[in-house]
């Protein structure tokens, strides 16, 4: 007698485990049954390989029940027994099924329904048969190797096809809204009409489902490419920003033709895998362009449960995407879009295809222009040129000038990597040297009177306006195309100026033809072209210089801070002081707080033109170089202290480079001129803020330790839409009697004098910080 153990299976439990381990969601039964219906339709209407009209699928979801009806090929008794109800068996592995483009092949979908439903009923009539079969399975009655599924022939009039009806258990309810959202990615592109509770949810085109609405794509070309596995024809298009759209057709895999195509859009979200337009699973994002879209390919194989595609399928798509990126890069490289597409730059760097970087631009200084790398040679001509990988302003100002170009390499990859390789290996341009060298010094006997006058005038301006007491100016030949080269020798600042510099001829011409303007133009020349090279040596730009300036301003403020009109009503606080309840420091603070603002009045007679009041501005040969970066650096003022003007506002209809294109200048108050004029003679930045009744200027000297604010309170509020502000290029104009500052164009109307005089209140003060 045997003591063996009988093998037993808890059928219901096994079916639940089977479904939950294989399928990603209870909703998967919808996908499985719908895919079976779609395959049946294709086997009937696409048995020649081409889908004919006539197929249809209807889905009903509601009241705890799901039904899917198709007019496909249907099932006879043999198929029903051996394929539908037999787990692991499939009738879709035949040549005919493959020719029809069926999607499924695993043969486990029917049994998996019982992970979420308690009853499954199938009604079917096969093509060429008048017989209708009905088969019902109850989950609680299922037993392995027992006849537990009913089968009967019924007298029912119905078309060829199949209806599968599933009764959901209470643990897995599915609402119509859930079902619809779940199904859309899988059936939206099917060319067979699919109706969900009566509404059509299929029939979309691939192009209509791409995230390209509102964008226009221009064809760049069609390129046929292949590798050792795949081949395809790549129709490459790009929008105005150089973003890529590709349609892939005529695909072969291992020499065999593949049914289907691909539509790839750069940064287009997920890349959805399809077979015969039926959604399978997303394909992991691959490549530099991060293509999304659709890959409708007959070789795609889903894993069981279709949570993902097989590794082999993904590898094969990767080959095609790699070819698509190559086609996109080779065609985009000839357009201006190449410079706008960061993914293109990444592709060039990762594939070492720097030969395709002709249209990638690089910043050329001092012009501050973005020039395509392929045009650099013709742009620079025979001028001395270097490239620079840093952002030190001193190096930039030394090696980027009127006689030499500097290529400013980008700070971030992949643009930096592409530019560096192209500049060094293709253009063969040298790196900026450690330092420029003086190759010849011109003595007094080698110079003309005009050249000597220029050097003397520069030295005088540096001494008087920039507080550099010991400076030596030398005319020289300087290597690397450098025009101005400063050198600190102990306490002395030595400045070499290139004799061949293109900066000198305009000044020498004015010396000969308009000597009366020569002095003021030399001030402009020093401000614009010398100061940026010597900024770190100017006392007012250093800590010691700021301390000296602070003491000077403090002395001025003490001299003028006790005017009777500025005391305000202080009897109360003075009483507190006398009673001992507050300190003298608090009294002084309160005095400043309660000080009456000054009233500034401007009449029509005090508005003059720039051209009349500051002659020579229009004729100045000096132009401002473009500012680098997002913020404007500190700059010296425009000094015209030989000019005396009683005007309080200056206007012009022209846009002069020396005035940074401002067309209106405002004269600051008389008292500020008396007390804080020294501040404005130092290099400073200019920030202007406005809103409500207020326009606030904030001027900050070069180290950032001292700021002067000038607060203007207008009688009428500024239009709400005009509120704003920011950094502006310093355009402070100092004359003998007044300091003028720029008024942004959008505020010009607020200061325009049309009828009677205009009044506004002003307050100002110097703020100090020990933190740089």
Automatic annotation (TrEMBL):
<keyword id="KW-0547">Nucleotide-binding</keyword>
<dbReference type="GO" id="GO:0005524">
    <property type="term" value="F:ATP binding"/>
</dbReference>
<dbReference type="GO" id="GO:0140662">
    <property type="term" value="F:ATP-dependent protein folding chaperone"/>
</dbReference>
<comment type="similarity">
    <text>Belongs to the heat shock protein 90 family.</text>
</comment>
<dbReference type="GO" id="GO:0051082">
    <property type="term" value="F:unfolded protein binding"/>
</dbReference>
<protein>
    <submittedName>
        <fullName>Uncharacterized protein</fullName>
    </submittedName>
</protein>
<keyword id="KW-0143">Chaperone</keyword>
<dbReference type="InterPro" id="IPR036890">
    <property type="entry name" value="HATPase_C_sf"/>
</dbReference>
<dbReference type="Pfam" id="PF13589">
    <property type="entry name" value="HATPase_c_3"/>
</dbReference>
<keyword id="KW-0067">ATP-binding</keyword>
<dbReference type="GO" id="GO:0016887">
    <property type="term" value="F:ATP hydrolysis activity"/>
</dbReference>
<dbReference type="InterPro" id="IPR001404">
    <property type="entry name" value="Hsp90_fam"/>
</dbReference>
């Amino acid at each position: 007698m045997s003591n063996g153990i009988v093998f037993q299976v808890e059928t219901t439990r096994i079916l639940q485990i089977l479904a939950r381990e294989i399928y990603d969601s209870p909703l998967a039964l919808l996908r499985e049954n719908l895919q079976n219906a779609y395959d049946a339709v294709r086997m009937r209407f696409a048995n020649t390989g081409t889908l004919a009209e006539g197929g249809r699928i209807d889905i009903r979801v509601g009241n705890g029940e799901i039904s899917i009806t198709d007019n496909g090929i249907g099932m006879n008794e043999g198929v029903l027994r051996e394929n539908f109800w037999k787990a692991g068996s499939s009738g879709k592995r035949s040549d005919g099924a493959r020719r029809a483009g069926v999607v499924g092949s695993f043969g486990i979908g029917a049994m998996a329904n019982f992970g979420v439903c308690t009853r499954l009923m199938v009604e079917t009539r096969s093509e060429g048969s008048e017989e209708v079969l009905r088969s019902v399975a109850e989950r609680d009655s299922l037993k392995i190797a027992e006849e537990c599924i009913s089968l009967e022939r019924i007298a029912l009039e119905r078309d060829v096809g199949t209806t599968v009806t599933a009764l959901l258990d209470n643990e897995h309810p599915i609402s119509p809204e859930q079902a619809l959202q779940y199904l859309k990615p899988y059936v939206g592109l099917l060319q067979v009409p699919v109706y969900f509770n009566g509404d059509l949810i299929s029939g979309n085109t691939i192009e209509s489902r791409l995230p390209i609405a509102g964008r226009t794509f221009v064809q760049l070309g069609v390129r046929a490419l292949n590798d050792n596995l795949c081949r395809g024809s790549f129709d490459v298009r790009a929008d105005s920003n150089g973003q890529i759209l590709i349609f892939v057709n005529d695909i072969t895999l291992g020499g065999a033709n593949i049914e289907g195509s691909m539509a790839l859009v750069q940064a287009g979200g997920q890349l959805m895998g399809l077979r015969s337009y039926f959604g399978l699973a997303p394909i992991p994002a691959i490549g530099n362009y991060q293509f999304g879209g659709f890959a409708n390919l007959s070789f795609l194989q889903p894993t069981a449960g279709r949570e993902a595609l097989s590794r082999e399928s993904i590898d094969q798509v990767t080959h095609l995407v790699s070819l698509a990126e190559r086609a996109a890069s080779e065609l985009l490289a000839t357009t201006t879009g190449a410079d706008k597409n960061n993914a293109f730059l990444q592709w060039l760097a990762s594939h070492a295809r720097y030969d395709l970087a002709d249209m990638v631009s690089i910043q050329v200084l001092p012009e501050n222009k973005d020039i395509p790398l392929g045009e650099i040679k013709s742009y620079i001509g025979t001028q001395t040129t270097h490239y620079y990988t840093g952002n030190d302003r001193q190096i930039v100002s030394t090696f980027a000038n009127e006689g030499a170009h500097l290529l400013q390499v980008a700070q971030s990859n992949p643009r930096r990597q592409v530019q560096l390789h192209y500049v060094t290996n293709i253009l063969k341009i040298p790196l900026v040297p450690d330092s420029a060298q003086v190759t010849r010094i011109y003595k007094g006997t080698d110079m003309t009177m005009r050249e000597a006058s220029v050097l003397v005038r520069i030295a005088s301006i540096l001494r008087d306006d920039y507080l550099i007491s010991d400076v030596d100016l030398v005319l020289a030949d300087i290597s690397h195309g450098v025009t101005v080269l400063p050198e600190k020798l102990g306490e002395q600042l030595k400045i070499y100026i290139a004799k061949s510099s293109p900066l000198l001829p305009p000044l020498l011409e004015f010396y000969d033809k308009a000597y009366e303007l020569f002095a003021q133009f030399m001030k402009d020349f020093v401000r614009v072209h010398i100061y940026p090279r010597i900024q770190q040596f100017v006392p007012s730009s250093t800590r010691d210089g700021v301390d000296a300036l602070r003491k000077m301003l403090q002395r001025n403020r003490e001299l003028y801070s006790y005017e009777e009109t500025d005391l305000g009503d202080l009897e109360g606080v003075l009483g507190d002081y006398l009673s001992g309840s507050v300190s003298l420091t608090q009294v002084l603070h309160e005095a400043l707080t309660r000080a009456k603002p000054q009233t500034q009045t401007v009449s029509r007679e005090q508005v003059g033109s720039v051209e009349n009041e500051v002659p020579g501005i229009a004729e100045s040969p000096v132009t401002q170089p473009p500012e680098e970066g997002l913020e404007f650096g500190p700059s010296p003022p425009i000094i015209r202290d030989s000019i005396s003007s009683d005007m309080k506002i200056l206007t012009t209809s022209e846009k002069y480079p020396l005035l940074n294109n401002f067309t209106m200048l405002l004269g600051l108050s008389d008292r500020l001129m008396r007390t804080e004029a020294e501040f404005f003679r130092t290099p400073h930045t200019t920030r202007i803020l406005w809103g409500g009744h207020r326009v606030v200027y904030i001027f900050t000297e070069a180290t950032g330790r001292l700021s002067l604010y000038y607060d203007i309170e207008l009688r009428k509020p500024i239009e709400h839409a005009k509120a704003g502000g920011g950094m502006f290029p310093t355009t402070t104009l100092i004359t003998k009697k007044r300091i003028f500052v720029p008024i942004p164009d959008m505020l010009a109307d607020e200061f325009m004098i049309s009828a009677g005089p205009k009044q506004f209140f002003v307050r100002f003060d110097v703020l100090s910080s020990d933190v740089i």
